[in-house]
Every structure is written in C-alpha cells, then in structure tokens.
Amino acid sequence: MSNPYFPMGSRRVRRLENSIRKRCVNLPAKRIENIYSVFTALMPPLVNTKFQHEPNAVIVRQQGQDIAFPNPLPLIKYSHVSFGYKEILKRKYTLPGFVEVTAGDVVVDCGAFVGGFSLSACEVASEVHIFEPSIQNVAAIKRNFEGKRHVHVNSCGLFDADKEVMINLSSSAVEHSLLEPDDGTVVSSEKINVRRLDSYFSEHSSQPDFVKIEAEGVEIEVFDGLGDLRPAKIAIDVSPERNGESPAEILQQKLEAIGYEHQRRFNMLFARRKST
Length: 276
Known about the structure:
By secondary structure, the chain is of the alpha/beta class. The chain has helices spanning 11-23, 29-42, 75-82, 85-92, 116-121, 135-144, 197-202, 219-224, 248-257, and strands spanning 50-54, 57-62, 65-70, 106-110, 127-131, 151-154, 157-158, 163-170, 186-195, 210-213, 233-237, 260-265, 268-273.
C-alpha cells in the first residue's frame, strides 16, 4: 500500500523528507524554514506551509490555519507539519474502525505539546481536556484554542497521584519527561503539578470517552491514574521511552484484566472496552 492511513504519504515521499531533515540538523532555523516552505510547495501530497517568527513563538501557516509552536521548533515537527499537522496527529492517535473520536465524545489529550491531536478532536467532541506541563507549550495551546469554550487547558501533567514532582526539561520541547528524556539534553528541571484522571474528573460533571496518552515514559502511571474510570477508547504511545523499554506488554496485561481488547500499530497501542 503506497499511501497508508499512518504513516502518511508514499514511501518515496517519506524517504525524501527524512533525507532532507537529516541534512538540516546543523542549519539555522530560518534556513530550515525556507527549505521546508519550498519542499512542501513543490512536493505533492505535502501541505504547502509557511513560517512566521514572533518573540516567543513560531507560527505555522497551512490550509488557512495558524498553529502556534514554541520557539525553536523541534526538528521532528518539520516532518509532522509537512504532511499537515492536524491530519497527521489525528491519524497517529486513531485506528479506523477500532478507536476513533466520534461526535459527542469527551476527549483527554495527555502530553499535548501544542494540542495537535486536539485540533481535530475538538471539531467533533463535546469536550476536550488537554494536559501539558510545559509553560511554553501551554502558551501555544491557549493561542491555538482561543475562543473554544469546550476545550479545557490544564497546565499540569498526569500521573498516578495528585502531587508535585520534578520534570526534566529537554532542549527539545517535545521531550520533557519525569524520567530521563530520550532525545535532546536536559537543560533544567522544575517542579510541576500532576493529577490523577479519576480525581480530575470527580471535579467535573463528565466522564472521558476517549483517552490519548503520550507521557514520555510514564504511560503506565497515567493509565493507573484512571482508577475505576473506563473510557470506551484508549490510545497509548508505547515507544521505548521508559528507560529504553516499551511499556506495551504491561499495559496490554492491564487492559485485558479490566475487559479491553487491543490492537497494535507500530508504537501505538489502541484499546476499546469490550461490549457486554
């Protein structure tokens, strides 16, 4: 299949983009932006993209929409943006016919970065609850969802307890972690608040239907924070970021024990509650 649901694009286009990105590693941001502006304009089916700098943000302009990112933009995000940022994040965290956001869902976006997944989810969901501990990333999220009253932005992380913890801040804005970041160098650490999902939703008048978890290695703890909550659909990034290991096997066992069926696609684990 030359153009799969995920990853997007043909193998030829993905290889070409990967080659270009590798050659951009040591280039200044402005040069990278120029390269990707030309690349996305000339290479179908990529999405024509322009970049604009502000004092603390990079604005990505594509398909009539502005998406704010912290400055500097992590290199991997040039790849995601090339294929259409909203669409590629939607496809990463859904599995057609098995786990999808449907009309009226209450959605949790854990580890949102700038809310890429929520950009599509909020178009059909009744509520979206975003969790992101980085102050800089939260500033971008608030800008991206300004005026959307059904989107709730929480400047905190998710875990298996309600408390304060130390987070390691990576030189790459997408790699901040309670563990050792698997990419980029640790530039500093800071104290953040973390919440359990069950205690969070006990304070709201709704229950989650779709829970997306990407937590840079602490996905097990975030899952355990569900407590007795049983969302119909769950999507978990199970990349080997837990001290170099994947949490997939542990999470599969936990899911099966509470009545979920699951499927795996690359580093994503999808689960849905079995019909009774």
